[in-house]
Structures are given as structure tokens and as C-alpha cells.
UniProtKB/TrEMBL annotation:
Names of the cofactor(s): Zn(2+); Mn(2+); Mg(2+); Ca(2+)
Keywords: Calcium, Cytoplasm, Hydrolase, Metal-binding, Zinc
Alphabetized PANTHER family for the sequence: REGUCALCIN
Source taxon at top rank: Eukaryota
Protein name: Regucalcin
Gene3D superfamilies tied to this protein: TolB, C-terminal domain
tRNA-binding is among the record's keywords: no
GO biological process, one term: L-ascorbic acid biosynthetic process
Binding note for cofactor: Binds 1 divalent metal cation per subunit.
Gene designation: Rgn_1
Length: 109
């Protein structure tokens, strides 16, 4: 079942996570953003833009899971793009989203 059709400017999905409200967060590689999707309606309900284009994954953390951590890559970027995106390849912390994540599940081996 198709959940959401990415808009052209959202490029391609990469890493994902779920928040405490059951919404899906998707890192959009080559689009410089993380989007929040309501899986029940199939609508994008939030967009967080970042200062790097190659956004690779996202997860919630912090003591109460109110912080989002977002990874990025610098591979594949030419010198001109790297000069415009000096933070490419870094990990970003996002606060103030108004939503929290959930603890991860651990499984015994």
C-alpha cells in the first residue's frame, strides 16, 4: 500500500523513525530536509529544513526523547557544493518540535 508520494523537491527517502503520536519522520536525501507524515491520512504535516542537502537518517533521543538527531553525508558532493554546505557530513540536533519520540525496542539474541 502506498503511504505517501514524495514531492519532487523531497527527492528520495532514506532513514526513518516514528514519534509518540505514531507519525512517520523521513530523512530526504539530496533534499536537505526531514518530513513528518501522517500515515493515516497520507499527508505531510511538517517539514524541517537543514543546512546540508544529503540528509541520511533521523531518530529521537535525549532524556525525554524530545530531541531529534539527524545525520548527513558529504560523499558525492563536489567542491563547489561543499563550499556552500560546510556542515555536510555532520549530525544535527533539533529541538522544539512539539513532539517526542518513543524508546527503542531491545530484543534478546
Amino acid at each position: 500500500k502506498l503511504l505517501y508520494h514524495l514531492e519532487k523537491e523531497e527527492q528520495m527517502p532514506d532513514g526513518m523513525c516514528i514519534d509518540a503520536e505514531g507519525k512517520l519522520w523521513v530523512a530526504c536525501i539530496d533534499a536537505g530536509r526531514v518530513i513528518r507524515i501522517d500515515p493515516e491520512t497520507g499527508k505531510r504535516i511538517q517539514t524541517v529544513r537543514l543546512p546540508a542537502s544529503r540528509i541520511t537518517s533521523c531518530c529521537f533521543g535525549g532524556k525525554d526523547y524530545s530531541e531529534m538527531y539527524v545525520t548527513s553525508a558529504y560523499d558525492g558532493l563536489d567542491e563547489a557544493t561543499l563550499a556552500k554546505e560546510p556542515q555536510a557530513g555532520e549530525i544535527f540536533k533539533i529541538t522544539g518540535l512539539g513532539v517526542k519520540g518513543i524508546p527503542q525496542n531491545f530484543y534478546a539474541a
